[in-house]
Inverse folding.
């Protein structure tokens, strides 16, 4: 069955918003080239190129999850400067499904731990 038959849709589109991410008051990402992911039942998520994230502050983990609409996600924990960690706060799809190929290798942050600040409103979700 297609996503539309299930009533669930996922769309990834390039954005131009300025996205900054802080964890524990420390800037960990700064990007003007996010990929916006619109998914039924979720607020828009911002996926950032790895070049715009300070990856020295994160360690990969063994955590993997599977989304039937995006693929298998890998996770990283925030280790910062050693003063505290946050487990599995960042995820990425290294080999996403073809319908969301634009997010390949990009990183997204759980906003329950990270402060994700966005300048500019996201465009309305595209009609598919």
């Amino acid at each position: 069955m297609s996503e539309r038959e299930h009533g669930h849709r996922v769309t990834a589109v390039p954005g131009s918003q300025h996205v900054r991410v802080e964890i524990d008051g420390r800037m960990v990402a700064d990007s003007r080239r996010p990929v916006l992911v619109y998914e039924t039942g979720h607020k828009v998520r911002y996926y950032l190129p790895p070049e715009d994230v300070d990856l020295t502050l994160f360690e990969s983990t063994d955590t993997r999850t599977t989304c039937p609409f995006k693929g298998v996600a890998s996770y990283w924990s925030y280790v910062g400067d050693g003063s505290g960690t946050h487990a599995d706060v960042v995820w990425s799809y290294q080999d996403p499904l073809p319908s969301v190929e634009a997010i390949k290798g990009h990183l997204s942050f759980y906003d329950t731990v990270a402060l994700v600040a966005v300048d500019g409103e996201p465009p309305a979700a595209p009609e598919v």
In short: The mean pLDDT is 90. The longest strand covers residues 58-67.
